[in-house]
Amino acid sequence: MMVPVRCFTCGNVVGEHWEEFKHRTREAEDPEDPAEVLDELGVERHCCRRMLVSHKDLVDIVAPYQ
Amino acid sequence: MEDYEVQFVDRSERSARFVVRPITPAFANGIRRAMIADVPTFSIDTVRFIENSSVMFDEQIGLRLGLVPLTTPPGEFERGDEVTLSLDVEGPETAYSGDLVSSDELVQPADENIPIIDLKEEQRLELEADAVLDVGKEHAKHQGGVAVSYRHLQAVEVVGDAGEFDDEEPEILRGVIEEQAADAAVETGGYEPENGQLVPTEAFEHDLTNRYPGKDVEVTDIDGAFVFDVETDGSFSVDELVVEAIGTIEDRATELKESIQL
């Protein structure tokens, strides 16, 4: 639903990078390469990278049924 | 007391890599375990909800709040101490970790941009939370060290020239090497060959054939020298984490010594 606060595997805080990652790779006019964005954000390990790459925000989808 | 030599390879506020010697593998692992399980950090433990009309249950929000790292200055608090934080956000807006208001200046969210919950029109989140100081042994949310590891420092020995007609296969190595064959090495990644220098393998893209072109090499572990990779979640700096971890080992050693004295 919301982006996980920490990486499930190593415990690194990944939540704080989510909005910038989402903006730069999906919402921006010319989307950047996710791999390069993650490198710049300092999310190095592949356990932390998958947390952001594979995440989908579901709050907007669930909200009408509350 | 024995003296230890510590050399830094990388050093920043939240992550560092350093070589310690001479220590035994058992002591190296002791330091690693102490960094993970024995250095206390603040973490939200009890949450009182005043209003929660968001799409998530109270328990889910409580879990997310628990994972937010809180700054924990060493030496200021005792294990078990509590600090109260509050949060009051009204939709349409996202509640961030930075919206948490702490009753103690020293204990603040270490990262301010962690989304807690996205609130829509007419949704509201108001709560009071108690953060408690405890150790990683008790609950993983109290771990200050993240992905703490160590490995042997390695040395590369040139044993001869590579055969003229050998396949040019890469020799992959990860970690840190201590330069001991500067004559055969070439400069890579800004590391001029100089005996005794510590070279992270990133400098030659983890491939020994880039550093020692045309040479046949053998890699050996250096006895008693360990490379530590330490990261923190932001509760404190790496320096504080390592010093506190060593402190807990010393405390336990002293306690043991006293309790077995006749």
From TrEMBL, chain A:
Keywords, alphabetical: Cytoplasm, DNA-directed RNA polymerase, Metal-binding, Nucleotidyltransferase, Transcription, Transferase, Zinc
Pfam families in alphabetical order: RNA_pol_N
Binding site for Zn(2+): C7, C10, C47, C48
Matches recorded under InterPro entries: RNA_pol_su_RPB10, RNA_pol_suN_Zn-BS, RPABC5/Rpb10
Family: Belongs to the archaeal Rpo10/eukaryotic RPB10 RNA polymerase subunit family.
Subunit (UniProt): Part of the RNA polymerase complex.
Subcellular location: Cytoplasm
One GO CC term on file: cytoplasm
Function: DNA-dependent RNA polymerase (RNAP) catalyzes the transcription of DNA into RNA using the four ribonucleoside triphosphates as substrates.
Main location: cytoplasm
Single GO MF descriptor: zinc ion binding
Name this protein carries in UniProt: DNA-directed RNA polymerase subunit Rpo10
Note on cofactor: Binds 1 zinc ion.
Domain of life (superkingdom): Archaea
Cofactor(s), by name: Zn(2+)
Enzyme Commission code(s) on record: 2.7.7.6
Catalyzed reactions per annotation: RNA(n) + a ribonucleoside 5'-triphosphate = RNA(n+1) + diphosphate
Any one biological process term the GO annotation gives: DNA-templated transcription
HAMAP family: RNApol_arch_Rpo10
SUPFAM superfamilies: RNA polymerase subunit RPB10
NCBIfam families cross-referenced by the UniProt entry: PRK04016.1 (NF003089)
TrEMBL record, chain B:
Record field: catalytic activity: RNA(n) + a ribonucleoside 5'-triphosphate = RNA(n+1) + diphosphate
Keyword flag Cytoplasm: yes
Entry keywords, A to Z: Cytoplasm, DNA-directed RNA polymerase, Nucleotidyltransferase, Transcription, Transferase
An annotated GO BP: DNA-templated transcription
Subcellular location as annotated: Cytoplasm
Domain of life: Archaea
Domain DNA-directed RNA polymerase RpoA/D/Rpb3-type: 15-259
Keyword Lyase recorded: no
Name of the protein: DNA-directed RNA polymerase subunit Rpo3
GO molecular function: DNA binding; DNA-directed RNA polymerase activity; protein dimerization activity
Protein function: DNA-dependent RNA polymerase (RNAP) catalyzes the transcription of DNA into RNA using the four ribonucleoside triphosphates as substrates.
EC numbers for this chain: 2.7.7.6
Subunit: Part of the RNA polymerase complex.
One GO term describing the cellular component: cytoplasm
Main location: cytoplasm
SMART domains: RPOLD
Membership in a protein family: Belongs to the archaeal Rpo3/eukaryotic RPB3 RNA polymerase subunit family.
Gene3D superfamilies xrefs: 3.30.70.3110, DNA-directed RNA polymerase, insert domain, RNA polymerase, RBP11-like subunit
InterPro entries in the record: DNA-dir_RNA_pol_30-40kDasu_CS (IPR001514), DNA-dir_RNA_pol_insert (IPR011262), DNA-dir_RNA_pol_RpoA/D/Rpb3 (IPR011263), RBP11-like (IPR036603), RNAP_Rpo3/Rpb3/RPAC1 (IPR022842), RNApol_insert_sf (IPR036643), Rpo3/RPB3_RNA_Pol_subunit (IPR050518)
